[in-house]
Write a structure and sequence with these properties.
The protein is an alpha/beta fold. The protein has a single domain, classed as Alpha-Beta Barrel (TIM Barrel), CATH 3.20.20. The chain is built from 9 helices and 8 strands. Strands 1-2-3-4-5-6-7-8 form an 8-stranded parallel barrel, surrounded by 6 helices. α1 runs parallel beside α9. The longest helix has 18 residues.
Length: 211
């Protein structure tokens, strides 16, 4: 299992729903530079979700990147995932840690200063901050703006992964605000060339590294 502190070295985080070509798609994104993968699927029943999680876990293990399942620490355990990502209304961080153990990666979504303050006392491996811009993947949730990225990057004691509208063109502004780790959904999931799209993101991150 990937150690939780390995998230500090990860910069390009794919968050994907299920899709017919899931394993092939994930492998292409990793080939392009993705270095951590989350399966976030809200519509599958537990048994098919477990099957899909096992498929992604196998691809990620073969290619040497962490695999994280959204919401379900119980299924993450069964799928032999490296960890789980939970939101503010999902399973508590403490429960996820007890189920998955001290070596698991536990991620937690934050959407504002109050979430950030509450997260300070929790046993998490990383936080996500955002969405910076309103996004269809989080319907009804307003964008946090760049100021929250700056606040989270300055205050958090674990890596902070920025979410919402991440594209190669947006990465310089996000980096200037303090972002060093980036979660991408649509730029990759909607691409006809996911490997090439991942490479563009990876190269953009390389250009701003150390900024």
């Amino acid at each position: 299992m990937t150690p939780p502190d390995a998230m500090a070295e990860c910069q390009l985080y794919l968050c994907t729903p299920d899709r017919p070509d899931l394993g092939q798609f994930v492998a292409a994104c990793i080939a392009g530079g993705v270095d951590v993968v989350q399966l976030r699927e809200k519509h599958l029943e537990p048994k098919p979700l477990l099957q899909r999680a096992r498929e992604v876990a196998s691809v990620c293990a073969d290619l040497g990147v962490p695999f994280i399942l959204n919401d379900r620490p119980d299924l993450a355990l069964e799928a032999e995932a490296d960890g789980v990502h939970v939101g503010q209304d999902d399973a508590p961080v403490g429960l996820a840690r007890r189920l998955l153990g001290p070596q698991a990666i536990i991620g937690l979504s934050t959407h504002g200063p109050d979430d950030l303050t509450a997260a300070a006392g929790k046993d998490v491996s990383y936080l996500s901050a955002g969405p910076v811009e309103e996004t269809p993947t989080k319907p009804g949730r307003p964008g946090t703006g760049l100021a929250y990225v700056t606040l989270a990057a300055a205050q958090a004691t674990v890596p902070v992964f920025v979410t919402g509208g991440v594209t190669p063109e947006r990465i310089p502004a996000l980096a200037k605000a303090g972002a060093r780790h980036f979660v991408v959904v649509r730029y990759l999931t909607e691409s006809s060339d996911p490997r090439g799209a991942a490479r563009l993101l990876h190269d953009a991150i390389d250009r701003v590294s150390g900024q």
